[in-house]
Amino acid sequence: MSGTPRADSRPLSPHLQIWRPHITMAASITHRITGVALYFGTVLIAAWLAMLAIGSDDYPLVETIVSSWFGQALLYLWTVAVLFHLVNGIRHMLWDGPAVGFDPKVASTVSVFNYAFAILGAVGIWAAATLL
Amino acid sequence: MANQNFTTPAKVTRGLGSAKSGTLQHIRQRVSALALVGLVPWFLYSIIRAFQGGEASAAGWVAQPLPALLLILTAGASFYHMRIGMQVVIEDYIAKTGTRAALMILNSFACIALFLVVVLSVLKLWIGAGA
After folding, report:
1. Using a CB-CB distance cutoff of 8 angstroms, which residues of chain A are in contact with residue B55?
2. ipTM for the assembly
């Protein structure tokens, strides 16, 4: 679409800066940003598995990085990103399948819920993985 | 009158039908998502534990049959889903034909290569453990 020059100069629909920002808008772009971020996060996971399989002498270096504050923060943010993309993805499937959740109030509430679920769910999973 | 032609672009294409290839990708993205809804919570919990337990415990975890199988399934659904998702992002933001094609090919190659890396790593740890 974006590559096709328009045949006429009739007005376009209002762009981003015209609309009042709202939470469903934020959830939408967060879904895409987390999707792209997870793409690159998965490369790191694959690299980790490969090092584990090779039995690399450098594995202690991986452990040093992962257990540093930076590694732990990255891993926690990764968990948040996965959970947001997961729960917002379920919302997308509810939109596409049974076609529920289009009401603006419901859509806004679900957006807030998804952010909360991602952040608190990550805390929960970390607690479970650490304590159990 | 500068523009004598009042036919809109929509009017010109209406009735010609769809490209007949968009819906399939849309459905595939959602079917792989459905598989991931079940696999990802398990994967998240397991991977955090694996990172916390150290090398021997992580390798021991992958060497068990069920985690090994679930890891391969998770990798398959993930890379399939990633490839389609990244393709949509490329289609949305990269208009230049050559760059777009190059990135889409790179995306496909990267996802397939990464999938192979994960599968071979898991199989090596699993079969290599001699269980």
Report:
1. 52, 59-60, 63
2. 0.83
